[in-house]
Specification:
Blueprint: E1 2-9, E2 12-20, H1 25-38, H2 51-58, H3 60-82, E3 87-99, E4 103-112, E5 125-128, H4 135-148, E6 151-154, E7 164-173, E8 176-189, H5 199-203, E9 211-217, E10 227-241, H6 247-253, H7 259-293, H8 300-320, H9 325-332, H10 337-365, H11 371-384, H12 389-398, H13 402-421, E11 423-426, H14 469-486, H15 488-492
Parallel strand pairs: 5-11
Antiparallel strand pairs: 1-2, 2-4, 3-4, 6-10, 7-8, 7-10, 9-10
Amino acid sequence: MKSTIEELGPTRVRMAIEVPWGDLDHAFGEVYKELRTQVRIPGFRPGKVPNRILDQRVGRPAVLEQVVNHAIPEVYSEVVRENQVRVIGQPDVEVTKIEDNEVLEFTAEVDVAPKLELPDLGTLAVTVDDVAVADEDIDQQIAVMRERFAMLNAVERSAQDGDFVSIDLEATLDGEKLEDGSTSGMSYEVGSGQLMEGLDDAIRGLSVDESKAFETALLNGPDAGKTAEVTVTVRSVKEKELPELDDEFASTASEFDTLEELRDDVRTRLSRTKVLQQGAQARDKLVEHLLEVVEVPIPENLVEREVEWRNNAMAQELQKAGMDWDAYLEMSGVTDREAYDADQRKNIEEAVKTQFVLDAIADEREVTVDNDDLSAQIMAQAQRNRMSPEQYAQQLQQGGNIAEFVADVRRTKTLAQLLEQTTITDESGNVVDLEALRPKTVQADHDHDHDHGDHDHDHGDDAEEAPDAEVADAAAVEAAEGAVEDTEDVTKA
């Protein structure tokens, strides 16, 4: 088999492939095997019809066509593998020559990952925001805690903002009652604006057992976009009473005896959260820097396919919710569909460029993915999605997403290594400690001296959701080992 690869551009190649007839024996065997199960000829037992008889009955051109259809995917994959071509998407194939008992020739045009010129990445540095916890931040957190311990007391007056009311709703369209727009005994906070437009204005000023009708646009269902008449009836009005901010509140709402101790603890927790935000900011700024210093051509076909896939997925979700694009864009605060598409395309292009850059750096530094890396990510992702590691691994396999998952783990590992080598300082010039930023749930022991079955993963507050940690860890490792075996070409690319 002969092959030549011609670069049509930075992200597209044409492969010209010549296949000697003898290399098609396997394809012929598969085709004749299928034909014998389909063709019945008098005088021959099922499955025993000679090849030359099948050629006569089906026609040699039809047989050759099926042979070509069988052979091209296998031959194409072999050429891609042998030449280590980083293909993206499906190829455009054209058969250029087929001579019976002589040769098969075809071309395949396909998008490929670009070859990038990487700058010196040995002196990376980013600046992040200072960790500053203001008194206003603490007051806001304390206010949230007060809300949790608020009491609701019935009052004999009309409803006003901040009150909690029990209401009945009845919606009609063209004089007919809408069952999905009617309810009774619903609890609602006046002024929250969380239910439907016009509701708050209607409730304000109503006392118990008083009603008011108003018009509002339906946001979902088969009549989305139409204007319905809604009647709201107030059944009860309750005023929210917040507890006093004192030591008694602190002891009730927390394990601390004084309000000062509670505020100190809130400050500490907010500081820890802001430090973690520094890590995320450092990661984002590092990626922004990489995209600025590396020129990354992207295949237009890849972006178009991703845009189309996302739009189709969104259209299906909107249809399920009984909404259209106009209603969704209005809710999202987007001026028009053109602006939405432009923003989406920009995000996709940045994501694609980021993947290409991290892949190129991983190739240059020969970053590999092992079972520990995959196990840690499977455990972390399963925890985020509130499912067991076995369920998450099965989801990857059933969706055919193992290779993509391994590639993402490799990119994450590469970015983590870059972040470790990056000088991170805050605006005040203080060096940020990366160890304080590292999520404990995705740390993996890289000394390879531990026993997977006894490996203790710290799951923080969600540990109670996984009572059998050893079983879960073993399942993650088993899934990771299978993923490595199934995607060896990805990790070595």
